[in-house]
Design goal:
Elements: H1 3-15, E1 26-27, H2 43-55, E2 60-63, E3 66-67, H3 76-92, E4 98-101, E5 104-106, H4 109-116, E6 128-132, H5 142-151, E7 155-159, H6 165-168, H7 171-179, E8 183-187, H8 197-208, E9 214-216, H9 222-228, H10 236-241
Parallel strand pairs: 1-2, 2-4, 3-5, 5-6, 6-7, 7-8, 8-9
Helix pairs in contact: 4-5
């Protein structure tokens, strides 16, 4: 075998590598309760997605429906009732995987008041609360919201920071958030170029700087998982696994 053939074979072997997420243990960001946000639309689709996630070696799922005042007016009751129905269907289909539910909160005035008033939140685990923002502009109340969360003894997790263009272009803000120990959670799909080249470059920067605390699939539908199966092509697939992540402790 020539040297060129050797490298071609090695490259092909990497590209054909099966996706294995057993190292991750827990996927803590997804949208799998049917019909309550922009994720899974039906129970049949939810079951199919969970079967695929289990097939990647995951042991636990914490699904996180959106709570967004203008579009998805979910409550802890709506989410937990949906979780109960999903668990029943998984049992009926003899699919054994631990599944819990939290929420992905959109930072706006409504959420700010909810936190300030001490309303019940659905955390990922203990006091960890997943939050998101719009992708283009920094919310004026971003730092105030984090302050209120911390004041009420919550630890904020910023969902997919690599997708926020305002954060890409504001290194000081990025470091300010990290200095106050806001946890960064990245989407695995960002490493595949699924969102954009800019997002891919930024997420690789966060990994190089060892700024990532949690990872998730952010699974919404089968298209997400089809793209996710190309993850082993990324040179950061292995590098990510060597970070000090919190997923396995959830």
């Amino acid at each position: 075998m020539g040297i060129v053939d050797f490298f071609r074979k090695s490259k092909a072997s990497t590209y054909n590598q099966k996706l294995d997420l057993a190292w991750m243990h827990t996927d803590m960001h997804s949208h799998l309760i049917p019909g309550i946000d922009d994720g899974s639309k039906t129970m049949v689709q939810s079951i199919d997605l969970i079967k695929r996630l289990k097939g990647y070696g995951l042991k636990k799922i914490i699904t996180t429906p959106h709570i967004m005042w203008e579009f998805y007016k979910n409550t802890p009751e709506i989410i937990l009732n949906g979780l109960d129905e999903l668990r029943k269907e998984l049992a009926a289909n003899e699919i054994e995987i631990e599944i819990n539910a939290a929420a992905e909160y959109y930072i706006d005035e409504f959420f700010f008041e909810k936190v300030k008033n001490g309303d019940q939140l659905l955390p990922i685990s203990e006091n960890l609360v997943l939050v998101e923002t719009g992708f283009i502009n920094k919310p004026a109340i971003l730092l105030d919201t984090f302050f209120e969360l911390e004041l009420h003894h919550y630890k904020p997790i910023l969902a997919h920071p690599e997708r926020y263009f305002y954060l890409m272009n504001d290194k000081k803000l990025k470091h300010d958030l990290l200095d106050r120990e806001v946890y960064f959670q990245i989407n695995l799909l960002s490493l595949t170029g699924f969102y954009s080249k800019e997002v891919k470059v930024f997420v690789e920067e966060l990994i190089d700087e060892q700024r990532v605390k949690l990872v998730g699939t952010d699974c919404h539908n089968n298209r997400y998982l089809d793209a996710l199966e190309t993850l082993p092509k990324s040179k950061y697939y292995q590098k990510l696994q060597h970070l000090d992540l919190l997923n396995s402790s959830l």
